[in-house]
Amino acid sequence: MVRELMDHGLVVEAGRGASTGGKPRTLLRLNPGGRYAVGVLFERNLCVVVMVDLTGRQVARTSFPGTSLLPPEEALSQVAARVEDLIGAAGVERDKVLGVGLVTYGPQDRQAGVLLTHQPTADWYEYPVAPRLSELLGLPVLLDNDAAAAAIGEYWLGATRSNTFACVYMASGIGGGVVLDGEVYRGASSNGVEIGHVTVDLDGGPCDCGNYGCLANYADPHAMIKQAVATPSLGRLRLDPADPDVMTGFGRIASAAGAGDPAARALVERSARHLGTAAVTMMSLFDLDLIVLAGPSLAAAGPIYQSVVEEEVRRRTFARRAHPVRVVTSVSGSDAAAIGGAVLMLQSELTFLDLDVPG
Amino acid sequence: MVRELMDHGLVVEAGRGASTGGKPRTLLRLNPGGRYAVGVLFERNLCVVVMVDLTGRQVARTSFPGTSLLPPEEALSQVAARVEDLIGAAGVERDKVLGVGLVTYGPQDRQAGVLLTHQPTADWYEYPVAPRLSELLGLPVLLDNDAAAAAIGEYWLGATRSNTFACVYMASGIGGGVVLDGEVYRGASSNGVEIGHVTVDLDGGPCDCGNYGCLANYADPHAMIKQAVATPSLGRLRLDPADPDVMTGFGRIASAAGAGDPAARALVERSARHLGTAAVTMMSLFDLDLIVLAGPSLAAAGPIYQSVVEEEVRRRTFARRAHPVRVVTSVSGSDAAAIGGAVLMLQSELTFLDLDVPG
């Protein structure tokens, strides 16, 4: 079997070890350049493309502002071109690229690689996003949830020092991921841990997702832009609630809050308080002892969210007398989801490496 | 190994099978009377004690109205006496009783067998309920969550025809359990799936659990008694919001609703609607395709809760386009939690039977 792994260039000799009685042992290590995988965070406000080697180390990265409201065919062509560019620029032989982990919002039919959402436009509903990108690139493409991928990304990057934790993720929207014993929690269809779409207000209005009073409508970037527009002293931020680029708008609010603007800070703290309520719900259901705050929007205002969410969880979680819950911020800025996508592709294509090693 | 199991009376010969070339095979089966386990559902409004044999079949049962506000020492003495009576009446040799699975509300320190709640009185906080009952009975006692036990009980009773599902449980309070691949979901401390204590109202008042706007305060038996007392046409039910026996009070409301009283029916439907909101939250986080409604209070008004919760889940769950979610009612009336407690004790004491069988 070792012979076979060496023939495939996956492991290489790393010297000789001491003999344990017979002939000296040959030490082996993974060959970092033996294979590569690409991860793509794909959403209308931001796309991040990364390439990782066989050990999961990032070897190349690019990002662009997102595909906005482009129709699917054009958006995917743009993504495919960026992936091609990155492979070319990295100087990696194409037959060493295992494939692409494409991560984006849900709901999804993960097996079929199809989106089950009308967001951002109706064109995307049931669009075969993974098969189509696979066709364009001539590479295997798997589809996964961005927040689940961010959780695996944070784990892989060593942010968590624990193999069991929850991740709260905020980009254009709010999502979540749970990792149990190093594996993404999947449920029936990998459409779980959607903390942006839990009801926090019994009398709340309808959400685009079909539920009522969802957290997203009180705390996500779009909701905050609407709140900021209704706040006279924040007129100077020149926010437009009709602009689909909600992450840039949110970034302006977060910067103003960071610079000490009291009205902006109050808005961010309110969002964090509401996110804290949903984090308490997540902990009262999953009962874990670590929450990682990740994603580009949380990266933009990390310290405020971290302190407020931690305070809420410490005060309100059902199991708080059984064990504490730590809340930490991401180590990866905006990139955890894309890295997680690449790692999920490595794991998917290299499961034959998942061998039972005695003892 | 078979010899050892036979010596312990756990398996017995069940005849001879056809030869597959060598000598005829000896067929073995579990010896139902080889060992027994006791399950106790313990709460202030209702106690149920069951005994099951080695195959998990119920061989004896008793129940009593609960220990109300008795101090812990007296309450546990009463439970111990009932367990002794049941063992005696069943005519089971004491050394064949593996122990007791004691199931009740949380939060708990399950490992230590200690309650971490001030409910129903402050005396219970950090009271070593499992060690103390073990001392009284001279038998091993494990502590577990009532709703988690109900989930395992329903699974064991064959209610689910699936080994992965969620259980919503209502007795005096509201809880939940999740079973994944036949095992109770535990999280960090077995204090998860507490759907009675998820926030459904951002502006809601404080709950006894320390959180705010919890489902329990809108939908549990005590909340419904308060709502009924405030409803003039329900004065004839003679409900007293100060009476600790909330399950009897709730039972009167459920009976009136079942008999067609429009005001009572409106109250139960409102509770079911709110429970449906929390069930949607549970599904949007755990993403499962089956919910079992269990516990004595849901047994009392099952059809209304079943139809309303199913409607809410079908309309509102995030993954509804990926797969349907069925909602079914318990097959066990009030007993799933006690049976689950006994089954958890069997599993805990007989893990040496969990052997790798080739092929």
From TrEMBL, chains A, B:
Gene3D superfamilies: 3.30.420.40, Winged helix-like DNA-binding domain superfamily/Winged helix DNA-binding domain (1.10.10.10). It comes from the Bacteria. SUPFAM superfamilies: Actin-like ATPase domain. Belongs to the ROK (NagC/XylR) family. PANTHER family: BIFUNCTIONAL UDP-N-ACETYLGLUCOSAMINE 2-EPIMERASE_N-ACETYLMANNOSAMINE KINASE (PTHR18964:SF149), ROK (REPRESSOR, ORF, KINASE) FAMILY (PTHR18964). This is ROK family protein. It comes from Nonomuraea insulae.
